[in-house]
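quick one: flavin mononucleotide bound model?
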Amino acid sequence: MTSMKKYRPFVLGINGSPHSMGITAKLLDLVLGGAKRAGAETRRVDLYKLRITHEPGLYSISSRLEVPKRMPRDDIRDLYKDIIRAGGLVLATPNYWANMSGIMKDFIDHLTALENKNFALEGKVGVFIAASKENEGGLEMAATSMAMALAQMGVLIPPNGIMWHPGDWETIKGKVKNWALHDAPICGQKMTELIKLLKEHPILWNEGTTGLLRKRRKRSIN
Ligand SMILES: Cc1cc2nc3c(=O)[nH]c(=O)nc-3n(C[C@H](O)[C@H](O)[C@H](O)COP(=O)(O)O)c2cc1C
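yep, here:
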């Protein structure tokens, strides 16, 4: 019980925008701020400041090859330790042609090596943000593209954990403007509470599923 009190969730924020003070970064900071206020340690990484190679496609030769130690020596490889340590991941992208930025896609592709490292992302909590100042369409697609990939890797998405800006909507009481700006800090706080809860009550996500069968198969191969 005493050790639980000391547990401090770690939330890692990933900025896929070239602008370190743009709207994407602003929303990301709001989520991280909420997480911090709820007791989390946070770190923001600006992907554009890193040296990132394109996905090498080792998986397509053999799934056993796409593991962290065989990935190209770039800055994402150095980031794997923090990604594994994180209880929560916040991925924020500008909306580029109705999808995530190219560098965010490279980041997500690099996560394949962690999927192959015994499904290392399973049970982490994820929040996904897409932003555009211009609002020229495609925001939902950008946000859900990221969320879908990480959901498949086993990441859990809390309520309002997929958000886009701007996202005005009408109710009978009037217009709700920029709901993501309002919800982002709350989402950071709630994701931190969820990470703490999951730490207290760990779940064996793969028990009885094909995921576990895959793990067993892997073990029998090795
Ligand atoms: C290559 C490129 C493609 C873009 N495509 C879209 C788009 O499809 N829909 C849209 O609403 N905005 C689009 N935009 C506008 C950006 O999403 C917008 O400028 C955003 O605010 C940039 O985020 P930042 O301030 O965090 O850099 C595009 C911008 C660029 C540079």
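Residues 123 and 202 are 9 Å apart (CA to CA).
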